[in-house]
């Protein structure tokens, strides 16, 4: 035994039984809350993964299919041949494909702004949009009530302006439908948070449990000097359990922790690189015929 530092104080204790009974319930509540929050974060991450994949796909198809709207004999395009290099206006191609790349970036950047707090991203968004787009394009997006929708419309117009058969434009436009789905899914996560009473009940349950825990540990730690071991045990338990609660709190708002700015910068760089490849690998009929003749097996 030991001499207490403070004397003349009535000892107050609680039995461990209620804590033992409630521990599984508290554990399950924390697990369910953490899983629900992680599910929201994982879903948001997958939406942005789809954005990254399909922005690349869109610009790849637009670049490779540019100018394919008719056969060489002038008949309706059947998808079997590409136009001659010299038949393409390279300056016009660079501009039109550049518009597709820019509007692709404008959509994801507008989506990032749409999902972020106003005071966190508004000024940076306006500055970036004005620095990359024409004044009219930038102002149209900034003034729109729903900026991602406006940017998506501008992207549709950029695709429609490409000299390309409508069948291939339809294939490219399928990516825009996916963008609408990722945008709508992200808005659902943003506007449908974890119910407040669920979060509050978990926090109150955990706080009450940890607040009363030292009274239940008083007797088991009676042999330690002035119950010093109880203080360390209670502090360690509180840090671990409150850490789980804080983890769930952070994950339930995924757009505050996902590196969306990095995603936007990555998408912009990838799209610019893809459209810069326009015209590479396209050979005229004479070159193709010569290569085929050279590769033909000798008899």
Provide an overview of this structure.
There is one protein chain. This protein has 299 residues and is an all-alpha fold. The protein has one domain. Helices cover 70% and strands 0% of the residues. The chain has 10 helices and no strands. α1 packs parallel to α9, α2 runs antiparallel to α9 and α5 runs antiparallel to α6. The longest helix is centred in the N-terminal third of the chain and has 48 residues. The N and C termini lie far apart (104 Å). The relative contact order is 0.17. About 5% of the residues have low confidence.
Our Rg estimate from Cα atoms comes to 31 Å
Mean model confidence by pLDDT: 85
Low-confidence stretches: 71-76, 78-86
If helices are DSSP runs of H or I spanning 4 or more residues, what is the number of helices? 10
Helix content: over 70%
End-to-end distance, in Å? 104 Å
Main structural class = mainly alpha
Biggest sheet character: none
H/E element string? HHHHHHHHHH
The number of distinct structural domains comes to 1
Q: How many β-strands, per DSSP? A: 0
- The amount of beta strand, in percent, is under 5%
Q: What coarse outline follows from CA principal-axis ratios? A: elongated
Topology overview:
Blueprint lengths: L16 H48 L25 H25 L3 H15 L2 H9 L3 H14 L5 H26 L4 H22 L10 H24 L8 H16 L9 H11 L4
GO molecular function, one term: chloride channel activity
Membrane topology: Multi-pass membrane protein
Pfam family, one: Bestrophin_2
